[in-house]
Amino acid sequence: MQLTSNSDKITRDYFDSLLIETRYLDADIPSTQMTLFGESFRTPVMTAALSHLHNTAQDGMTVYARAAALSGAVHWVGMGSETELEEIVATGARTIKIIKPHADNQVVFRKIEHAVRVGCMAVGMDIDHAFNSEGGYDNVFGLPMKAKTTEELTEFVQASGVPFVVKGVLSPHDAEKCLKAGCAGIVVSHHHGMVQYAVPPLMVLHDILSATGGSVPVFVDCGIESGMDAYKCLALGAKAVSVGRHLMPLLKGGAEAVAQRIDEMTAELAGVMARTGVSSLDKIDSSIIHRRAF
After folding, report:
1. 255, 277 Cβ separation under 8 angstroms
2. What is the pLDDT of residue 5?
3. Model-level pTM?
4. What is the pLDDT of residues 54-92, one digit of tens each?
5. Which distant-in-sequence residues (6+ apart) come within 8 Å of 108 by Cβ?
6. Cβ-based neighbour number of residue 22 at 10 Å
7. Which residues are catalytic, by number?
8. Is-contact 253 45, C-beta < 8 A?
9. 39-57 as b/e, with b when 16 or more CB fall inside 10 Å?
10. Distance, CA of 236 to CA of 232 (rounded, Å)
């Protein structure tokens, strides 16, 4: 009999176990501006690397990208055709393309080359799609996957010519190997509960930051639904956060509806920053966070 867990609920419970203290004296109006890979953005609230949003709304992938462009946010994108990626980049959204760990490395190299050629600001790999739940290699929409070695990852990094980010890191073990391969960033994520009883990203974030020593930006994905959630991630050391499923229901309302929610989350973040005495993202202090019993 297969046991059922809910890694998403565990992640939500961990978020809600984190409490903040207020700091009003000598506080000022905050700025949410973020710099990433040499470019400036209005918010550290980013879209997540989703795929196949045409199943959610007409032209869902480009609607999602336009929302990021409207909000001045970094846009991430997952699987899709070359034509779709070109349409996404044409929206003006500064895009990071995440590529699956295809069994055929030549497929990976071709996708890297195309993403860079059409103007993506960075590329990367979704390493947690390597295996299926039965211990074999994964197959995603008929496409065979395979776990990659650190040496293979190094080859992808060297081939990219732009920052290369690994998504699906949930341990210092993998974080250290990403650094060894020359990666420029890490996304801490359990991919919406792909593994039962997965450690919440924020629970392992400190150990991953210790492993990386601040040498690369570390992003947090999974379960982020508000500016307060984003604040907690940033206070614990994340560079920025990715929001996906929370935004998906809004896609039918168009890019403006999705952008409005990103803007609202950014305003919520600014509100918490103001009330905790933080004037800029780099001044968020982890001592503001307290944890009740989990």
Report:
1. no
2. 60
3. 0.96
4. 888 999 999 999 999 999 999 999 999 999 999 999 999
5. 99, 101, 102, 125, 156
6. 12
7. 191
8. no
9. eebebbbbbbbbbebeebb
10. 6
Task: Report CA Rg, the chain.
Answer: 18
Angle at CA of residue 73, ends 277 and 70, nearest 5°: 115
Position 204: which residue type? V
- What's the rounded Cα separation, in Å, for the pair 273 and 36? 20
- Structure tokens, 272: 């918490």
Check if the beta carbon of residue 221 is closer than 8 Å to that of residue 188.
yes
Q: Mention every residue, 6+ apart, whose C-beta is less than 8 A from residue 105.
A: 152, 155
Among candidates 75, 15, 41, which has minimal Cα distance to 228?
A: 15
Residue 234 buriedness (CB in 10 A; 0-12 / 13-18 / 19+):
buried
Q: What is the Cα–Cα distance from 266 to 227, expressed in whole angstroms?
A: 6
Cβ–Cβ < 8 Å for 193, 200: no
Q: Is the per-residue pLDDT at 4 higher than 90?
A: no
Query: How many whole angstroms separate alpha carbon 162 and alpha carbon 50?
Result: 21
Taking alpha carbons only, the member of 274, 286, 230 closest to residue 44 is: 230
